[in-house]
Amino acid sequence: MGEMVELEKLPQHLDTLSPRDWDRLFELLPEIERTQDFREYAEIISKTVGVIIDLRINPVFDWMAWKEGEAMATNRDYDYSQLDTITLCKLLAAIIRADRFTDGFLADCFERGVIAKILRALKNKVYSSDASEVV
Q: Rounded CA gap, 71 and 66, in Å?
C-alpha cells in the first residue's frame, strides 16, 4: 500500500491498475448486495474500504468543500451511472472520510445501497469498451 494519490494524479494512477486489481473490488459486490445488516464495523465494510485504500482510488482533495458530492452521497435515488470514473472515486473517498466526522455515515451508505451503486457504476466505466472513459 502506497501513499494516497493527489486528485490531479488520479487519472495516471488509474491507468496503472489492471483488470485483476479492479476485480479485487468488484468481487465484493455480491456480498455487499447480500448483506442485510451493516453494523458500524461489519466485515464487508472493512474489506471494501481496505481494497479501496490498497488500490489507492480514494484521492486526496478538499472533500468538505465539495457540496455536489455530499448531495450525491445522501440522495438514495441518484443515478451514479452518469458520473465519470474520477467523480466516482472522489465520492468513495468523501464517504470514507466523512465517516470520521459523522459516526455511522459509511455504514448508512452501505445500508442504503449507495456504495453498491457507486461500485456498479465504477465497474461499468472500468470495463466499458471505450477505454477513454476510464479516466
A: 9
Three cell numbers, residue 44: 464487508
Tell whether 86 is covered by a domain: yes
pLDDT digits (tens, 9 = 90+) for 83-107: 999 999 999 999 999 999 998 899 9
* CA distances to 10, 31, 46, 64, 122 from 43, in Å: 27, 10, 5, 27, 22
The DSSP result for 6-32, as a single string, is BGGGHHHHHHH--HHHHHHHHTTHHHH
Domain that holds residue 109: 7-133
Number of domains comprising the chain: 1
In a domain, 126, yes or no: yes
The helix (H) or strand (E) run that includes residue 53 is helix 43-55
